[in-house]
Amino acid sequence: MIRAGFIHGTGAAINCELGWIPDWVRLVNLTDGDDIWENFLGHVIVFTSGGTTEIKKGQTITGLTNTSTTGVLREVILDSGTWAGGDAAGWFIMGADDENGAFGSENVEVAGSGNLATVALQNEDGIDIDTEVAATTTDATGIQSYSGDAANNYAKGFTVGSTVSENGKLFGFLAVRNGPGESQPVRVAGSTQAEAVW
Could you report the per-residue pLDDT of 34-47, keeping only the tens digit for each? Predict the structure, then answer.
């Protein structure tokens, strides 16, 4: 899914409704031509100490400290170690709307299986990148996912934070998201990690 459009900056945060939460947003200051902001809106969680049974994409993980927190894995990328050796380490990747609650630095398991992995504090929406200036922003002031507001019939989309939303400026945006079944791993020639993405 792809959506392109325009936004009028106000100096305050702006919720942009698309009907879906993008995987990636690019925002360009068209008035000044001086800034291009980009952000990956997926939830990336570092994991270590993987259990001895492989945790796979499509499975649901549950926190053992934050027991009401669950997430459906879009991808599992192994960086080092092995599942069989109990020392697997890498990244769990979920869409912004694949997670219920927020994982902390805790153990997680696959839906009551007892197959544990230890996760670090999650990176909620990635890091906002300004391609013209070295500085980055926090999610609260840059670009972040927007879950909508059912009470007011507002659709899902993304939020342009107050730092990026310069008053009186015209912005162009490009928002993209994989459709169902399109979030497939990239195979790397010669790699022993079948689902590595580098």
Answer: 888 888 888 888 88
pTM of the model: 0.72
Among 98-107, 125-134, 145-154, 180-189, name the one with the lowest average pLDDT.
125-134
* 106 and 135 belong to one structural domain: no
Q: Which of 53, 86, 119 is the last residue of a domain?
A: 119
pLDDT for the residue numbered 158? 93
Tokens of 129: 């990148």
| 47 plus 113 within the same structural domain | yes
What confidence tier does 182 reach under pLDDT thresholds 50, 70, 90? low
* Residue 170 belongs to domain spanning: 2-41+127-176
> Does 13 share its domain with 36?
yes
Neighbours of 62 (CB within 10 A): 20
Q: How far apart are CA 183 and CA 18, in angstroms?
A: 19
The 43-48 sheet, strands edge to edge: 75-80, 89-94, 43-48, 116-119, 106-110, 60-63, 70-72, 99-100
Question: How far is 47 from 118, CA to CA, in rounded Å?
Answer: 6
Of the candidates 118, 138, 115, the residue with the CA atom closest to the CA atom of residue 128: 138
> Could you tell me the end-to-end alpha-carbon distance of the chain, in angstroms, rounded to an integer?
23
Q: Are residues 111 and 146 in the same domain?
A: no
